[in-house]
Amino acid sequence: MKRSDIITLREFERACDELFDEWLGRWRGRSGAIGTGGIAGAVMVDRGEEYEVRIEAPVENPEVIEVEVNQADLVVRIPAGAHPALERRISFVQTIDRDRTVARWADGVLMIVLPKSRGRRIKVQ
User: What distance in Å separates the CA atoms of residue 124 and residue 8, rounded to the nearest whole number?
Assistant: First the structure.
């Protein structure tokens, strides 16, 4: 298998994950078990140059919300009192520019803007 085939398979896998996340929702507790008790009301929109994610986060103090971003994944954890934290994972097709990613919370809604990484042109010598 060629390297380009592997990259294409990874992109296909991420696209399938994103599709199933959108259609079925992937609500998980910290244990990773699938269930309906996870973070509700998550919406992801591809705006071309960036992804925008809105998640219902009805907490009194937004500082307790954990947001983790790596190259192509977003993980949001919200404490649930005596229960394990509620967790939402979203995988993206394109890589994310982690340094330009921002998260804002207002009126019980967490909005995360994840700019897509730009390719770099290389001069052919």
Answer: 24
Yes or no: say if 48 and 114 are a contact pair by the CB < 8 Å rule: no
Q: What is the pTM of this model?
A: 0.64
Q: Domain tally for the chain? A: 1
Amino acid at 62: P
Instruction: Kindly give the residue spans of alpha helices, DSSP state H, lying in the chain.
Output: 3-24
Question: CB neighbours (10 Å) of residue 106?
Answer: 9
Q: What Cα–Cα distance (Å) separates residue 88 from each residue in 16, 42, 118? A: 17, 8, 26
Query: Which residues are bridge partners to 115 per DSSP?
Result: 50
Is 9 among the domain residues?
yes
Residue-wise pLDDT tens digits, 6-15: 557 667 776 7
Kindly state whether residue 121 falls inside one of the protein's structural domains: no
Asked if residue 125 belongs to a domain, the reply is: no
